[in-house]
Fold this protein.
Amino acid sequence: MSKDSLDSLFERLHGEFDVAEPQKGHHERFLEKLNQKQGTIVLHRKKTPWWKHLSIAASVAIVALLGYQAFGPKPSIKQQVVRMAPEVSQTEFYFANLIEEQIAVLQEEKTPETAKLVDDAMEQLQRLDKDYEALEEDLIKGGDGKIILSAMITNFQTRIDLLKEVLSQIENIKNLKKQNDESYTI
């Protein structure tokens, strides 16, 4: 057939095409009739069992959970240390409170005469804090736990000793100033 004869065929049949949807169950009825005429068995499509859909959904959920654990937010160093050695958090809480109290007293005692001493002490505390953070990282990386925990406690004790020493020196400065003020006569 040429292109012209196809075009003329479509023009002639225009409006006579059946474009309606077949009725529900058409496929099954067609297969029944085909089986009766030919005497063959044509299998019907089986419906997918509900458990297959459920297993697919469960697989997707497991993959999402594993992805979240692998690529989700990582716990902080503090959280990892607490997980490895729970006693560290209790010890740290105790020492941190003592140190904070001493720092508050130190800041109250800051005067023009003691400013340099207080500032130097604060710098030393910052260095000790950085050393403590390095010890936490060493603990996480798998260093010798007992030695590192001992070093962490020693770090806290060093901070407290430093604060006590600075407060003692400030008290001596205040006493010297008081004595100089008393001995000065007008």
